[in-house]
Amino acid sequence: MKIDVSSPAAPAPVRRSFLRDNPSVLWFMGLLGLFTLGVTVLSEGMGVGVISTSLVKVLGMTLCLCLIAVAMDVVWGYCGILSLGHFAFFGLGGYAIGMWLMYARTEIVIRDNLGRGTIPPTEAEVSEAVAAQIFGVVGSSELPLIWSFAGSLPFQLAMVVLVPGLLALVFGWLAFRSRVTGVYLSILTQAMTLALSLYLFQNDTGLRGNNGLSGLQNIPGSLHLPQSVISVWFFWASAFALGAGYLLFAWVVSGKFGSVIKAIRDNEARVRFLGYNVEGYKLFVFTLTGIISGIAGALYYPQAGIINPAEIAPIASIYLAVWVAIGGRGRLYGAVIGAALVSLLSSWLTGGGAPNIDLGFYRIVWTDWWLVLLGLGFVLVTLFFPKGIGGLFDYLVRKS
Amino acid sequence: MATLLEVSGVSVTFDGFRAINNLSIAMAEPELRAVIGPNGAGKTTFMDIVTGKTRPDEGRVLWTERQIDLLKLSESQIATAGIGRKFQKPTVFEDQSVRDNLAMALANKRGPLSVLMWKASAADRARIQDLAEEVGLAARLDHRAGHLSHGQKQWLEIGMLLAQDPRLLLVDEPAAGMTPAEREHTTALLTRAARSRAVMVIEHDMEFIRRLDCRVTVLHEGSVLAEGSLDHVTQDQQVIDVYLGR
Ligand SMILES: Nc1ncnc2c1ncn2[C@@H]1O[C@H](COP(=O)(O)OP(=O)(O)O)[C@@H](O)[C@H]1O
Ligand SMILES: [Mg+2]
């Protein structure tokens, strides 16, 4: 790395306003707004129909992945905690909203069916029938305790925030308090993720084991609306969440709080001697990013339509770290670029969108070779562009 | 002059090796004190104990007239209780500007929420300006700390110490690697700081110590070998044998 000692850094005297000091935030918001408008106008549901409903969903899901990547960048790129567990929070958010989606939709269908008879069904009958319908696949007909309030949207929405938040809080408290850092902390977060996914794979945990929750694309109360319209709604919600999350994190990492967490990343012992409670800061950042990850997941899975324990598998959280590394750690737009680029490329190559290449003696089948490509890209970026793709912007800014 | 810090009968063992051996040292307020001694004498370890980085096997460390037991506090609690420390190797946050480094050290509230809401007040800005002038970095406030020279990093760290407004400053080898002119500036800084506070300086350079013109404690093998004026300790036969004579 070349450091130019003589050239003065850009002067940034008195702190004026947050947005003026962080022009990249305005740029990001503008581009996100344009993108949202563009997709809407071209969509099947609301516009001219150039972009298919399934592509709108893929794009909406990509925005959710960008949001969790931004959270990952704050916890890793800024605070130095290489968490390999944030997809667990993402998955939990998805399960929390999935429970309501599945319960409420099944309830509507059952009431419809039972209501055709002469005597109106009792509440107990409805609840029993719903349970039998949802849990038949795992050989049960009883509603597990954790589904007690699954019919209540406000309750499940609260769970979207509370479950990932509490898990992050408790796990973080235990881990940071014993001053586990570096690789050991990464392994610990990975173990948490693995344990959670193995637990969810079991049939008797009340979340339908490896079947997961499905039919999540059908929104209770809007069952009559076509998916083409619903997909645009979720796209909007995802864009809004990404915008709001980006703004929140950009504000958090600017100013003195950002200073302190970057300092913790670079030398946490020194920060302690400045009088800061390092563990408290780590816990704050870990929990806040965990909650935002949960919200991202709650928006992602209704677009995916299905969630199962495989989504929480440790590999997902590792991908997340790879996205952020490729996009560029320590700059929020880098995380967005990394997540969008790699996840879209991945679905293009593995979804059969990309033509396989016939070399005569060998056929490159992208579904097989994609991971090799990704691994290679990761190694190349780490070795030659430690600042990631986002680092390219530094050259642009310096030139102008 | 009231006793500010009282360390008594402290011992530390690392894997069977006694780095600090029944050590007792007291500091008054205000006071400037130099600590000298051969490499491995336990000078840095002594600072580790006072700042909570290393827990002693035995002994007491009492702080202020209220006799607070420092051994029960964490590093960050000790720092907020009024003890600032400069490390042997200059450790400033190189990725951040001089201004941000100083702002972090300012004696403001340190909880995550207060820090999140913090905005530099006019008083904060004036204080940062004063500190930067004091340590000679006023022209460099908006430069990255990583771009400073070695000596300037040392001063920035001293500035960060002063920003914390501590009652006791522990300064580990501040003049190491400095040019003679830089050393002179550093001496002036420390003597000024010691007018209103307790300042303890570890140093090897005898010329530097002489300019500090203060009481000197000689450490050897983890305990105090001699204490007194520089002339007094340099004439001590034991000190000559283990330290100066080599
Ligand atoms: N954490 C540690 N583990 C093992 N030995 C240590 C540790 N810290 C210091 N020591 C040993 O204690 C002795 C005193 O070290 P130190 O306080 O750094 O000496 P000084 O600062 O006076 O040169 C040295 O022999 C050093 O090797
Ligand atoms: Mg030392």
Describe this structure in words.
The complex is a heterodimer of chains A (400) and B (246). By secondary structure, chain A is mainly alpha-helical. Chain A has one domain (21-399). In chain A, 68% of the residues lie in helices and 2% in strands. Chain A has 14 helices and four strands. Chain A has helices spanning 18-21, 23-42, 53-78, 86-115, 123-135, 153-177, 182-201, 227-253, 255-273, 278-304, 314-327, 332-350, 366-384, 392-399; strands spanning 213-214, 306-307, 357-358, 363-364. In chain A, the strands form two sheets. Chain A has a two-stranded antiparallel ribbon. A two-stranded antiparallel ribbon of chain A has the order 3-4. In chain A, strand 3 and strand 4 form a beta hairpin. In chain A, helix 2 packs antiparallel against helix 8, helix 4 runs antiparallel to helix 6 and helix 12 packs antiparallel against helix 13. The longest helix of chain A has 30 residues, at 86-115. Chain B is α/β, with parallel strands linked by helices and 246 residues long. Chain B has one domain: Rossmann fold. Chain B has ten helices and ten strands. In chain B, strands 6-7-8-3-9-10 form a six-stranded mixed β-sheet, sandwiched between helices. A four-stranded antiparallel β-sheet of chain B has the order 2-1-4-5, covered by helices on one side. In chain B, helix 3 (98-105) packs across helix 5, helix 3 (98-105) packs parallel to helix 6 and helix 5 (122-134) packs across helix 6. The radius of gyration of chain B is 18 Å and the shape is globular. The mean pLDDT of chain B is 93. Chains A and B meet through helix 9 and helix 10 of A and helix 2, helix 3 and helix 4 of B. The complex binds adenosine-5'-diphosphate and magnesium ion. Adenosine-5'-diphosphate (ADP) binds at residues 14, 19, 37, 39-45 of chain B. Chain A: It comes from Rhabdonatronobacter sediminivivens. Chain A: It is found in: Cell membrane. Chain A: InterPro entries: ABC_transp_permease (IPR001851), ABC_transptr_urea_perm_UrtC (IPR017778), LivM-like (IPR043428). Chain A: This is Urea ABC transporter permease subunit UrtC. Chain A: One of its GO terms (molecular function) is branched-chain amino acid transmembrane transporter activity.
